[in-house]
Amino acid sequence: MKGAAKTLFFLSIFIASGAHAKIFMCKDASGRTLTSDRPIPECADRAVREYGNNGVVKRDIAAPLTAEQKREKQAQEDRKKAELAAAEEQKKSDRALSARYRSEEDIATARKRDSDIVSEHIAQQKKSMAIADKDWKDAHAAVEAQKKKGVVPAGLQYKHDRSEKSVRELKFRLSESELELAQVHAKYDLILQRFREITKTASAR
After folding, report:
1. What is the overall mean pLDDT for the chain?
2. Would you say the pTM of this structure is higher than 0.70?
3. Cα–Cα 20 to 30 A to 186, which of 52, 55, 128, 196?
4. Is 144 exposed, middle or buried (0-12, 13-18, 19+ CB in 10 A)?
5. The Cα angle at residue 123 between residues 122 and 129, in degrees rounded to 5
6. Residue 66 φ/ψ, nearest 5 degrees
7. Rounded to 5°, angle at Cα 62 from 56 and 65
8. Sign, Cα dihedral of 28, 30, 34, 40
9. Residues 60, 35: Cα–Cα separation, whole Å
10. What SS3 string covers the chain?
């Protein structure tokens, strides 16, 4: 007996035997068709079809998810939540950006203000660096001259070491300030790019 005929056969038996409120039908692990008027234990982990007492399909009950499927479903839900949260955060950021900057000129003015502060700091550091570098070179020359005579005085060696340390520290702070300036410009590049995107979207509506 073929599958469809077998299904009708079993259903006709149940319907003929009495009007049941529900009829459950499924295939077990070995492929046997099982039919009952109550949930079938052998098909607890398999898809089940529920029929009404007139033999019409009421609903299909999907098989329970496997552990791997549950993990994948949870991962998909987590990704969707993260995407929705990111989209909402972007909307808030866009609203704040639009409220703060009315034009590209506003952005250029803010960029200049912030970059000028850091640039001025860099200029001062370079002046200090030039002075410290001269002090170190003078001290280094003096130490080398004393070495030729024999012993380097402790005070001169201390001055040499201190000026050398000062040069290293100023170089480090200068590199940090130059990095900060680059970050300021990168920040305003992104702001300008997003501002143009928002403006373009608004004008297209």
Report:
1. 87
2. no
3. 128
4. exposed
5. 85
6. -75, 170
7. 175
8. negative
9. 14
10. CCHHHHHHHHHHHHHHHCCCCCEEEEECCCCCEEEECCCCHHHCCCCEEEECCCCCEEEEECCCCCHHHHHHHHHHHHHHHHHHHHHHHHHHHHHHHHHHCCCHHHHHHHHHHHHHHHHHHHHHHHHHHHHHHHHHHHHHHHHHHHHHHCCCCHHHHHHHHHHHHHHHHHHHHHHHHHHHHHHHHHHHHHHHHHHHHHHHHHHHC
Please give the single-letter amino acid code of residue 26.
C
The vertex-19 CA angle with 14 and 23, nearest 5°, equals 50
Greater confidence (3 vs 76) lies with 76
Q: For residue 183, what are its two tokens?
A: 């970050």
**pLDDT tens digits along 146-170:** 988 888 899 989 999 999 999 999 9
CA 164, 168, 174, 177 dihedral sign is: negative
Residue bearing tokens 């001290």: 139
Tokens of 169: 């520290």
Amino acid, single-letter form, for residue 25: M
Cα separation, 92 vs 101, in Å, equals: 14
pLDDT digits (tens, 9 = 90+) for 11-54: 455 555 454 568 899 888 888 888 888 888 888 888 999 988 77
